[in-house]
Amino acid sequence: MPSEAGGGVPGTPGPIRATTPVPDLDDYTAPFEDWIRDHLARLTDAAESDIDALTPDQFDDALTTRLAGAERLHETGLGFAYAHPFADGVVEVLSLDLPDAVVTLPDERVAALGRHLPALRELGRTNLRRLLDETVVDVEHLSAGPSTCVLVHGDSPYIASFARLLDEAVPRWVEDADVTNGVVFAIPHRHAIVLQTCSTASQTRSALELVPWHAAQLFGEGVGPVSPHTYHSRAGQVTTLTHPSRSRGLRTVPSPFLASLVAPQRHAG
Hints:
Layout: E1 3-4, H1 34-52, H2 56-62, E2 63-69, H3 70-76, E3 84-87, E4 90-97, E5 102-104, H4 107-113, H5 117-134, E6 138-144, E7 147-153, H6 166-173, E8 183-186, E9 192-197, H7 201-221, E10 231-234, E11 237-240, E12 242-244, E13 250-252, H8 256-262
Antiparallel strand pairs: 1-5, 2-4, 3-4, 4-5, 6-7, 7-9, 8-9, 8-10, 10-11, 12-13
């Protein structure tokens, strides 16, 4: 099970430590070579007994969903066929938020639980919502001329995963935020979300100009990359706004809805 430092849940009884250090997936650069996959597999086996030592209540308290890059998970060779699609290139997986590590659960471990997967996923989402209440974040307003967007970041490896809860989270992070028209966002790495609401034409233009640029910069610089893409979340639907270009970069293509916000059609009166 890939493990990443940080992100403990306050109140989880007793630190659970592996006899052999559990691998941090973000210490390695994809694509993974065979020796890295073998190393991850050996350390995953070493962690099994420590996960088994959790009581059922401790396990349920630590179970949390997280968003991760689909390609990066595939490169581990550990198997995450159960992963639930969230957006292009991003999936939702189950993890354990332990005091000293975040352990992502592969297929074999999830199957061994013998529990209904949708119920596990809902429990993990409930705990993610609780984590949103408990997590301290830094909120920065980034600007380029008249255009602005917001960077939310911090120590928790679950900050990118809060993209599942944007309608709840954005009003907490941004004063007077209006999410009626949705939020343009990016999750370049596990510790950050770049976002902008779309309540006005000006905000929507800022979102389409700045969020993709900052996403590309942070994806190359951050620990635990998730996705270089920019998305629009509205009414529970996530739309991809960036697509590969001939220059090997990404080009932004506004959805018809966002395009209508930037240049509203005039109707004859």
